[in-house]
Every structure is written in structure tokens, then in C-alpha cells.
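User: Fold this, then the next.

Assistant: Folding the first:
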Amino acid sequence: MNTALLTIDDFPSKNTKSIVDFLKEKNIKAIFFATGKNVEKFYEEALYVVKNRMIVGNHSYSHPECSKISLEEAISDIEKCEDILNKLYQDAGVERKFRPFRFPYGDKGGSNKDALQNYLKEKGFDKVYDKHLCYDWWKEFNLDKDIDTFWTFDFEEYRLHLEKDFSQDYIWNKMQNPNPSSGAALFAENNRHILLLHAHDETERFMPEYYKAFINHLLEKGITFDEPEFI
């Protein structure tokens, strides 16, 4: 049996409420990784996610490449988003039980990686449960030890509106690929996954209800969705 945890980056957006309503209909609980600047822009949409008992994680305030800024700048950006998320939960009247973090672009900070991991640990950020992931590369790159939340499969649908030569066919072919060059095969037997989608209105305009197409296909192929758990 294949199982997956759904994570959604760069939230919130105008289409956030529709995404949440669809996930509730399918009984899927996801982790939404928020950029602080987007929360400020779409505050009501962000409140909707929290009030509907999805988990909101920190994805930085301004979505920087952490290897291209100083350690102090990276920490400041994370903490600015933390302040916004604390207020968000308070305004929603919901206890903030979990504080997962994901680096923008999966960029863990270059030479500051160890310092940032220590910071996340010392500040009590929550590590997503990943002990059921048995990929050699997951351990080779120390992803089993890192506090931040990485992924095993990225749909890359954000590229649809950015690259003229990037098509929906590429995504469908990637989903079926039994031997991808990076990450894990989506439908290999007994695979476990942390999936990465994005909350982008630009993608919504390019491919309306893109998230429904992908998730419905996963369900049709027998993938079941895990409840978020933390170590």
C-alpha cells in the first residue's frame, strides 16, 4: 500500500479556500507552509486554513534562498514569519500545537546549514515523522536527521506558467516515471511519500483546479493520505 503526506507550499493565495474545501471533502489533512508576506496579503484565506484544522508551518517571511543570505538574515526572516503565524493562530482562536518548517526552494543554507539546523532544534520547531521513509538517498543526505521538512516527490506544477516548454504532460509523465532522476517513484509498490504541491494563483489561471486533477489521480491509483505526525 502506498501512503503519502500532503504538503502545500507558498500559501496563502486566492485559491486557498477552494483547496481546503476540496481536501476536507476527500478527508485529507495537509501541512500548509506559509510565507509571511503572503499571510499578510491574504489574511482571511490564512485564517480559513487554521480554522479548518489544517496545520500551518513556517516557510519564511520573504522566501529567500538561504544560502545567499547571512545566518542572521535567515533567522530574522524565519522569526518574522513566526510572529505572523503566532498572531494568525491567536486570531483564529486555535492552539498552535505544531511548528514545522520548510526552507524555500529546499535551500538549507549552504555553509550555514548546521547552524540553521541547530537554531530550528533549539527553538523547538517540529520534525515531521519520517521514520517510515526507507530511501537510501533520504539518509545519505541526512534528511532523516534534519529538523526541516523536505519532500520525496515534487509535482513542479509551479513551472507551468513560468516556462514555455514546461507542460502538463511533463507532470503526468513524471507521476508515472518508475525511475526518476531525483526523489522517489510515485507509484512504486509500498512507497511512502511526502508530497509537495504549491498554492499559486498563477497556476490556477493556467490549469484550473490543478490540485484536484493530481490528488484525484493519486486516489484513483490507490494512494492513501497520512495524518501529519511529528517526532
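Now the next one, as you asked:
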Amino acid sequence: MVRARLTHQVLVIDDDPHMAATIVAALKDRYQVHVATDERDGLAVLRRHPIDLLLLDVRLKFSDGLEALGRLRGASDCRVLVLTGYGSKEVLLRAMRAKADDYMDKPFDVFELQERVAALLGESPTDAGPLFKARQRLLHRFDQPHTTESLARSVGLSPSHLRRRFKAIFGCTPMEFLERGRMEQAARLIKGGELSIKEVARKVGYLDANNFSTAFKRFHGSPPQSHRRSAASP
């Protein structure tokens, strides 16, 4: 039997051999997977192979993964999925600033990893599960008036089952995930400086600018106006 040609190439940079082996086992039947344990070896792989996706651990033995990301991008413009066992809002914001394409906490669900990788590589698996579909709806339609009940109906689950399983896999409830996505998108739009605060609020699903400002300050620690001023300062 001739094995199907693996069209996408994936690089894993992780100095934990057990974690690297888990990722390889999850992806090897679908992609050509390369493994490096540090930034130097990762750069060598990026220069030798047309890597489509980089899975990068935040804490490497000899360097900070997010600091290394800028240098790694100098060798390749591939998409980047950041992995971390030290998940926090600070790490998430650093990953955003480093222009990572996606972010996952460790330990992760293997099936969720496979779905995230497929999405980042532009694949649209027809058998994507309801939790992945729910996440995609939230991720790409921040402006919609989502509720847990409406989201559950759209993917064929009960609200309680969706809330429980979503939190087990993604580490937060659907509505917490939605708020995080809205606030991250709002910060990018505010930094761009092209829209008013009221327009940004509408873009991310808030009809009331005051409610938006309150939510933004709660998430980022400062109101939208201050965020804009700090982004504009040299």
C-alpha cells in the first residue's frame, strides 16, 4: 500500500521530549512533522524546509519562546501556534504582541490540537466536532449577540453540556472566550487609530459604548482612551 503524500510540513519546537512525542503522534499521519528542542535547531529546520506551521513552546531551555519568535519569523513567514504550560493573561497578551496566530494551554486535548492545526493550515474538516464549530463561530463573529443558549442550538448541544465541555477543553466558558476575543480585537482596532471608540465597540458586539468601556477597562486594566494614547506615544 502506497502512503498518501503529506503535503504540509509542521515544525515543533519544544524541549520536553514527552510533549514533543505526543504532538508528533497526533500529527504524523496527516503532516510531515519536524522536531527541534531549541531556537538554534528550529532556525536550521526553517531554513532547510518549507514549513507551513510552527508549534512553539513559550518556555524553552535556553531562551524565551516568544522572544525567539521574532528571530524565527526572519527565516519563515509560516503560521504560528503558541503552546504553554504557564497560561495567564500576561502570556496571552505577549503572544498577541508577537503576532502568534493561535494559542493553546498545556495540557491540551489531542483532538482539539488536530482541529486547531487543520484550521491554521486552511483545512476545513467536514467532521469537525461541535465544540470546534462553536469556537469558530465565536472566533470569527465577535459582533454577533451570542449567548450560550443560541450557540448551543447552533451546534446541536444542550447549553449545560456545551458550557461544561467547552471549559474542559479550552479552559474557559464560551462567554469568557467571547469576551476575551472581543477585547483582544478591540485593542487591535484601537491601536490602529482609524475608528472611534464607539465604532470599535460596535465592531466587537457592544451596542452601548459605556458598557464597552467598562468591559475593556476590566480586561486590560485601563480604559480605551488611555489605551489609544499609550499606543500612539513613541
